[in-house]
Amino acid sequence: MSRWEPNGRGRLAQAALELYVERGYEQTTVAEIAKRAGLTERTFFRHFADKREVLFGGAGELQDFLVGHLTDAPASATPIDAIAAALEPLGAHFHERREYARLRQSVVAANAELRERELIKFASLASALAEALRERGAGEPAASLAAEAGVAVFRIAFESWINGSGERDLSQIIRESLAELKALVAGA
């Protein structure tokens, strides 16, 4: 592959994931990723700060997606219903990425450093969602509780979706998980 072919970032991400699955995250070098993608190490570092960020480069996009949908929720929505409105469209967002997400999650689950980074990503996401709720007028602790609960629902639904048979889509699992959370809280 010529190093001038388009979509260098995507090729690097795909090459990295393939190598992480084949060899393991720790055993894979940036040089190997670049070589498999048909690019140079220098090009790798133009796209990613380090080999870990290949797996987390979409965190900002996900945060923007969720905050945008939360902001667009009806003004009358409660904090948890605004979170639900933000989470619901994720099914369409991830629909074509199920296999990539499944492989990515297997790499993350196999490495303590990556699991820690994933937790940091989720904490940042909850913080951004709480801030968006506060901007909508939600007080504390409602904004933080709804945001943290929303992230927990997303994590559990996402894990169920990538480990499932593929019969149910992510949006459906999110709705079911939110309903289960509401039922638990109502029964408390």
Give a quick rundown of the structure.
This protein is mostly helical. Helix content is 73%, strand content 0%.
Distinctive features:
mainly alpha; 188 residues; Arc Repressor Mutant, subunit A; 2 domains; 0% strand; 73% helix; single chain; 11 helices; Tetracycline Repressor, domain 2
Write the layout of secondary structure elements.
Layout lengths: L7 H16 L6 H8 L3 H7 L5 H4 L2 H13 L7 H9 L2 H5 L3 H12 L2 H24 L6 H22 L6 H17 L2
**Oligomeric nature of the chains:** single chain
Query: Care to count the β-strands?
Result: 0
CATH architecture of the largest domain: Orthogonal Bundle
Distance between the termini: 59 Å
Basic shape:
elongated
Largest sheet descriptor: none
What order do the SSEs take from the amino end to the carboxyl end, as H and E?
HHHHHHHHHHH
Task: Determine the CATH superfamily of the largest domain.
Answer: Tetracycline Repressor, domain 2
Total domain count: 2
- Name of the CATH class of the largest domain: Mainly Alpha
Number of helices: 11
Helix vs. strand class: mainly alpha
Taking pLDDT < 50 over at least 5 consecutive residues as the criterion, the unreliable ranges are none
- Overall helicity: over 70%
At CATH level 3, the topology of the largest domain is Tetracycline Repressor, domain 2
Content of β-strand: under 5%
State mean pLDDT (0 to 100 scale): 93
